[in-house]
Amino acid sequence: MRMKILGLKGKIEDIDAAIEKIKKYDCVIQLMDARAIGGKRHVKHAVIHALNAMKRNENIANDLGIEICVRTAGERQISKALDIVGIKDDTEEFCAVFLGCDEDIIEEFIKDFGFEKNNEVLKPNESYLKKLYNLGKEVEVVGVENALIERTTLLTIEV
Fold first, then answer.
1. What distances in angstroms separate CA 54 from CA 47, 59, 73, one per listed residue?
2. If you placed Cys at 91, which of 3, 76, 87, 134 could pair as Cys (CB 3.0 to 4.6 Å)?
3. Where is the signal peptide (predicted)?
4. Residue 153: enclosing H or E segment and its boundaries?
5. How far is CA 129 from CA 33, 105, 147, 153, in A?
6. Measuring CA to CA, which residue among 61, 123, 72 is closest to residue 93?
7. Nearest-5° Cα angle at 54, 108 to 74
8. What values do phi and psi take at 69, rounded to 5?
9. Any idea which fold 3-157 has?
């Protein structure tokens, strides 16, 4: 399945309406708070784990988009995962995951939401991420991005 991960800037006034609007697209689109992302590799790893979990019927969520959030957050509880990576009223920097979307659909989505492409928002703010994920000494050894990737992997091991 074709995967594209983009950084986007913009504002969503009504999150519930935005979720309904996203459902009209004939592919999987998942928006997350870019501040909670440890880099593009972190998200790609989480998406691969989410796809594999769904294929093996080892998924935590019934929805692939939510499963991506769970895996990205490295958190089994959906509500906690969404607290970490979910978009909030003040979110202006987004990580968008597109699965099975043609390029024209991606461009239409960006235009519909009034977003601006900006992959700079996917660069990790390490001090913010350490606090958000309560990262400890492992960061000194493997770094923030690898620590987050490790948490994603541990979800699969703990099944």
1. 11, 5, 17
2. 87
3. none
4. helix 144-157
5. 12, 31, 10, 18
6. 123
7. 85
8. -65, -45
9. PF0523-like (3.30.2380)
